[in-house]
Amino acid sequence: MQTKALYSGSFDPLTMGHMNIIRRASRLYDEVTVGVIDNPQKKTMFALEERKEMISEAVKDLDNVRVDHFAGLLADYVNSNGYNVVVRGLRGTTDFDYEIQMAQMNARLFNENVETVFLMTDPRYSFISSSMVKEVNSLGGSIEGLVPDEIMKRMSK
Ligand code: COA
After folding, report:
1. d(CA 157, CA 95)
2. Would you say 75 and 110 are in contact if contact means Cβ atoms under 8 Å apart?
3. Per-residue model confidence as pLDDT tens digits over 109-135
4. Which of 45, 90, 105, 130 to mutate to test the pocket of ligand 1 (most atoms within 8 A of CB)?
5. Which sign, positive or negative, has the C-alpha torsion 13, 15, 93, 141?
6. 6's torsion region: left (phi>0), alpha (psi -120 to 50) or beta?
7. What is the pTM of this model?
8. 63 alpha-carbon distance from chain centroid
9. Is 42 a catalytic residue?
10. Partners of 85 in the β-ladder
11. 44 CA from centroid of ligand 1 (Å)
12. 10 has which bridge partners?
């Protein structure tokens, strides 16, 4: 069976923690899609197209990874696009409480052949979040090594 995995999120911006999950998922599954949520209600630093562009640049060496976007219910997008795996990263116990709730709700909504699979975050990245990266950057702190270099350059502008 071909495995088609989705890794979804806001990615505002993509961090090295996300990249680590994408790289590992690309070794586990035949195809991986990074699905950027398009939620006009959420105020983001980067517009949807810019987030997609930055991710595409960061994953260009991973042959089985592509970038897409979706709006609305994740389960609708998953079911109608034939994904059989939804990958999530777990950074620690605080993520777990939220993630189990989301996975169980999604399990009710997914087609039968879809599973949520959790990858434990590499400890080098377990403290990173997109908001924290934005905050440190806006206050003049270094974010080197926390986001891909191209994204760091854009953020310093
Ligand atoms: N490394 C580094 N940071 C990580 C990470 C990792 N491995 N995994 C998550 N994060 C960060 C994210 O950058 C984000 O940071 P921020 O809050 O500072 O922006 C935070 O952890 C939360 O990530 P996540 O849980 O993936 O939230 P999200 O907003 O990026 O995406 C969706 C959440 C899009 C997957 C979820 O809201 C969704 O499915 N929405 C669709 C609507 C829906 O179906 N709702 C019903 C769900 S049951």
Report:
1. 31
2. yes
3. 999 999 999 999 999 999 999 999 999
4. 130
5. negative
6. beta
7. 0.95
8. 17
9. yes
10. 5, 115
11. 13
12. none
